[in-house]
Specification:
There is one protein chain. With 368 residues, the chain is mainly β. The protein has 2 helices and 25 strands. It has one domain (2-363): 6 Propeller (Neuraminidase), CATH 2.120.10. Strand 9 and strand 10 form a beta hairpin. The longest helix has 16 residues, at 2-17. The protein starts with a helix and ends in a 5-residue tail after the last strand. The relative contact order is 0.15.
Length: 368
């Protein structure tokens, strides 16, 4: 009973604090956090927060934390114990942060793995003022789809990534349910860069889709470019093939010129690719120094990343995959100024509990 009481109190506190935060500051880091340090991540339903950090400030506390509602019409949560859920993206127009999860019910209303329960899939948008809006985009039905991430063009159109044919297009103004891309069984992360939709597949996803791991954009059923696909016959077109053995990838980013790309490998770290003479070439890998004993550690790589390409050297921000007891927890937000292959990995933030995990990362929203 004591455990249930503490859990209920934590849920109530999250609901009271959501929407009562200060505005996000521009050009800062937004990190999607699973867990409040009270609810056990192994329950597989974690309250969500967006923490704001100052780029370059090491070992820092968040400037502010926006609690996402866990009860009511805007309630949404995700499985903080899952290795694939919790990607965060910024809209193509820079005004919104987006992530995907489960909605329509309160946190822990039904116990168990949410993808196996009768819980709807949901999209959450957050603007610069911290206003949260949640919408249901997928009904449970008979599918066991894990929603991994979602991105929007800022004009009311959404694209989601997930497993079990969870790569979808959704326009809530004109559609009652999302449109599945039927030839794309699995996808890991999703972003709009330069007006083009990109996604990643790891080795297992590639096997399911009869391709290899890497970064992909989309074409239509006849093979013509589909920058923002809206047809069920959309297919993947590989842009950056992953270099073996770096094929357990999730997050990614590409510079505006389309000449530099980074991927986050769950085990290996962060990989850099460079395009020259029309072809992408692997440059090098940044391994991530560990601070959890190897015998207790979950993984040794990175999950999500976002890159600031505005300066002379790209600055990479990423969330790591270390953690105790087979879970991504007590992990970190790290930074790398990519001056060369031996650049130093520094820690911006450390999750202080085995019941807290940093997941998706992007930059804070801009003004409307």
């Amino acid at each position: 009973m004591k455990k249930l009481f503490v859990t209920a109190a934590a849920i109530a506190l999250a609901g009271l604090t959501a929407g009562a935060q200060d505005k996000f500051l521009p050009k800062h880091l937004a990190v999607l956090r699973a867990g409040d340090g009270v609810i056990d991540l192994h329950l597989k339903q974690a309250p969500a927060f967006i923490d704001e950090f100052t780029p370059g400030q090491l070992n820092a506390a968040p400037l502010m934390s926006l609690a996402i509602p866990t009860n009511g019409s805007d309630a949404i949560f995700f499985n903080g114990h899952a290795a694939t859920e919790g990607m965060l993206a910024r809209s193509a127009d820079g005004r919104l942060l987006t992530f995907a999860g489960y909605g329509g019910v309160a946190l822990l209303q039904s116990n168990g793995t949410p993808s196996l329960l009768n819980i709807d899939r949901a999209i959450c948008t957050v603007d610069m003022a911290g206003k949260v809006h949640t919408m249901i985009y997928g009904r449970k039905g008979d599918k066991k789809m894990n929603p991994r991430g979602v991105v929007t063009d800022g004009a009311g159109h959404f694209w989601g990534c997930g497993n079990a044919f969870g790569t979808v297009y959704y326009d809530p103004a004109s559609m009652t349910e999302p449109l599945e891309f039927r030839d794309i069984p699995n996808s890991r992360a999703i972003k709009i860069i330069g007006g083009t939709l990109y996604t990643t597949l790891n080795q297992a996803d590639g096997f399911e889709g009869d391709t290899t791991a890497g970064i992909f954009n989309f074409v239509d059923g006849t093979g013509n470019a589909a920058p923002l696909p809206q047809s069920a016959d959309a297919k993947l077109s590989q842009v950056v093939p992953a270099e073996s053995p770096y094929n357990k990838i999730a997050g990614f980013d590409i510079n505006p010129a389309g000449t530099i790309a980074y991927t986050a490998d769950m085990v290996a770290g962060i990989q850099k690719y460079v395009k020259a003479n029309g072809a992408w070439k692997f440059a090098y890998n940044f391994s991530i120094p560990q601070n959890i004993p190897a015998a207790k550690n979950h993984e040794t790589g990175c999950f999500a990343l976002a890159v600031d390409f505005s300066g002379p050297a790209p600055i990479i921000y990423a969330t790591t995959t270390e953690g105790y007891h087979g879970c991504v927890n007590s992990n970190r937000v790290v930074q790398i100024a990519d001056t060369n292959a031996t650049a130093t990995v520094t820690t911006i933030a450390q999750a202080g509990s085995a019941d807290v995990a940093y997941r998706g990362i992007d930059f804070t929203p801009d003004k409307p």
